[in-house]
Design brief:
Largest sheet: 6 strands, antiparallel
Number of strands: 6
Order of helices and strands: HEEHEHHEHEE
Number of domains: 2
Helix content: 40-55%
Strand order of the largest sheet: 1-2-6-5-4-3
Shape: globular
Length: 192
Amino acid sequence: MIDPTGTLTAVKKRTLVLVAVLGAPLALLPAGAVTAGYLVVRDGWKRQSTCQELLPIEEAKVRTDRWDPPEDLPGLDDYPAIHWQVRAKGNPCTWGPGPTDWAYQGVVKLRPEDARAFAERYDFVAYDPVVAEEYAANRTPEDVWPALAGFLPPEPRWLTSRVYDELDTSSRWRTGYLDVEHATLLFMLDDH
C-alpha cells in the first residue's frame, strides 16, 4: 500500500514513541519492586540487628526514675529511692506478630513510718518460702535479678501480702515483699 501523504508512517512513529514512553516505566517496574523489596528487608535486618544488640544493654540498666504508672505499685505514694529493671519475656526484635510481654523487678526504699503503715494497710505477714512457691513460682526474693541484689537489705525479714499482690489496680501480675525493719519493698511485675 502506498501512502503518498506519509500519514501511516507518522502514526507508526507516534505509536512507537507512545509505547517507548509508557512502556519503559512498566518494563522497569519489576526491577524497581525488587530493589524496593531489598531495601525494606535490608533496613529491617539492620533494625533487628540493632535491636538484638541493644536489648541486653537495656535489660542490664538499673533505672532510678519513679515508677510509672503508679497503679502498678499502689499505696507507695512518695518514696525516697527506687531501683528497677525490665526484661523481655520473649523476643521483641522479631518480625512476628503480637506483643512481647515484659517482666519487671525493683527495690523501693521507703520511709520507716510509711513501711509500717504499708504493712498494716495490706495485712503483710511473715514470708513462708513453701507457701510462696505455690502461688508465686519464680517470683520470690531468691529470684531477684543479680543487678538488684545489692539494693536489698542484709539479712532481710520479708513479709508478704496476698491482699496487696491481688489488688486489681494494674494489668500486670504483682508480687511484693516488704522488710519493715529496713523499710524496703521488693516488687516483681509481669505482663499478662
